[in-house]
């Protein structure tokens, strides 16, 4: 009994770890949007901070977002006068998107010059074939990572692959049933100990035994519910594919609230 309770308590700890380490696609896109705002406001240091923070979750970024992050990181380093780091970021962007071009109408000649130098250097010294290229994170690798996460914590994998709403609901249900199961088994253990003590003392124990049986049944019901939710969570992550966006209500939306010493910007963004 105590071993089973220990396992369930460990499961609660894993839930907390999963929640703390999960970053949704919406959050990552907001990081990129915030970084671009910093860049266009001339706050290059803040832009670099936001972009490096987003790149910590590289595997969760869409390929196009990875390119954007490396591109604006390079822009910011050029603004700082650090051509070496700027070229390093341009190389990463070009590895992901060899057809990448910069628009002279919106990008300064100084940045374009560094970009063209990087392309020329890469053409003269191609990237070694053995060097890993972080390209397919939304395919098989991402599916495997999502499955591993859902095996540990219900809903974590769904959130990882971009199904934020479904993942949150599933994680809440999974966590609630884990908590209920742990509590009910603890109560069962306490009632069993009380009943056994009364029986050993030769005192009446019928009432204590009935309470023990009630909690024992509740514990198994909660365990069954938990196992059912976890089984559905695994079925969903392994056999079902994320739904595609087909209507206006399903596009990415978020509130924007930014403030600095010079302005306050409020808005509601819809990404098509």
TrEMBL record:
Residues passing through the membrane, by range: 171-188, 214-235
Ranges of the TPR repeats in the UniProt entry: 67-100
Keywords, ordered alphabetically: Membrane, TPR repeat, Transmembrane, Transmembrane helix
Coiled-coil region: none
Protein name stated in the entry: Uncharacterized protein
